[in-house]
Amino acid sequence: MDDSLDVAIIGSGINSLVAAAELALAGKRVCIVERSDRLGGFIQSAERTLPGFIHDSFSSWHPLFVSGGAYGALGKELHARGLEYCNTTGPVTASVAADPTTGAHRVVIAQRDPAETAAAFKAPGDQAAYMAMLDDLGRNAGTIFGAFGAELRSFGEVAKIALGAVRRGRFSGTEAFIRDSVMSGRNYTRSRFDGWEADQLWSPWLLHAGLGPDQATGGVMLPVMAMSMHGFGLPIVKGGASRFVAAFESLLRDNGVRIMLGAEAEEILVAEGSVAGVRTSQGVVSAKTVLANVSPQALYSQLLRQAPTGTAEAAERYQNGRGAMQIHLALDKPVEWLDPRLNEVPLVHISNGSDSTGIACAQAEAGLLPSEPTVVVGQQCVLDPSRAPEGKATLWLQLQEVPFSPIGDAAGRLPVGEGWTHELKQGYLERVLDRLEQFAPGTRATVLASDIIAPTDLMSANPNAVNGDPYGGSAELFQNLLWRPFPAAAGHQTAVDGLWHIGASTHPGPGLSGGSGHLVAQKLKAPPSRLSRIQAALKPSKR
What we know:
The protein has 20 helices and 21 strands. With 543 residues, it is of the alpha/beta class. A hairpin with a 6-residue loop joins strand 6 (91-98) and strand 7 (105-111). The longest helix has 18 residues, at 422-439.
């Protein structure tokens, strides 16, 4: 047994990197155990298509990171090690669709300036309603973002948030705000706007939070997405996402973090109710604290051989969300949209909002390939021309309404009996390109090469993407916030002394904020409270 470590961390996704860096900077002796041959989890870039074309393989956009506490703690250190962001001061995101009545193209664009965004809304009153939406969230930001960064099972932390709201005088209108927050995105936009622009613009963004337009809490996540992008844009890492990981790796090694690559975590060791370390394929790592950045199923059904009563069964019932798919294209030239304004927008959704996205979500939930999927069109070269040779471009297409094991095709055209075969991937690529061609004709002819990542490929790349779900489990209300991942194991501190659960399947959920890693690191760095010291003194000896 190696007794030289304070903390062992299983997995190396964003939450692990954040926790390891913060703890190492605080003087803790840390080890990361990673099954892959690289750090980063779903953060990677590579020449996936042709030489010279750099694609962010999985995640790409960093507004949640640069707006969060982890960046506040680590940003200076990361930038000193080469991290550089490319961002926009103008158009941030947009959505394009065919009008369901006339067939004419409907385009709505979000600018960094919210007032400029609202000025394009046509229905009387919608401009004021948009600014009021952001003002409402701003008035309650301390409460909302405080909840995202707190242990919601902790009476003390929840009381602190509530006391802050009282001091800010924010309890007037609280009931109405909470009611709006638990609405679906569809109902939220219906209740506030008469026109189509806000719904078409922001409802597709709910997919990036592991939600759909008809699921609860869209009423808070929709304005949170809007506020984040108005405030922080859509930053991407200059030169590709792997440079983000490289900056973290430099920071970790500079501070003595032991990095074990190609090391499979096989068992979390427990002695007399307390964690003792991790048995790996490369030997035993002993540590009094273990952070497990794994799925609930892996933690309670595989790594903990004697899980607390009921947790293994509850973990097996944990529900994962829809699968996802990515298509990476190398283009002979940048996309030329029929509406030329879209040529300069970093990320465009092909969706008319809640309606088309809601239908596609329902089809995917039923096991069908959507007939008209929501297509996320990432144009990273708009922000970072270094991603492709001069005059050419990359395209990052994301599909977030895809079944892991399709049982049929909603359009009745593609055979699905053998699952995600090469032929099915190519067939779905053609459907996606058909959608894109509606609004950017001629794009198909510019494709030099493609690389397709199906839901099955996602799970092969990262076992935390159970059933091809990259968001760590459905973020519906019954297993979110106070109940994430499930009531018997809600909160990051587990029933095993010294064992903590972090990652997308824990509060505050999916995304690149590093929220759970930051939250747990802050707790482990904090001096013990008087109550915890008394409890420790009263604890029976294990000798």
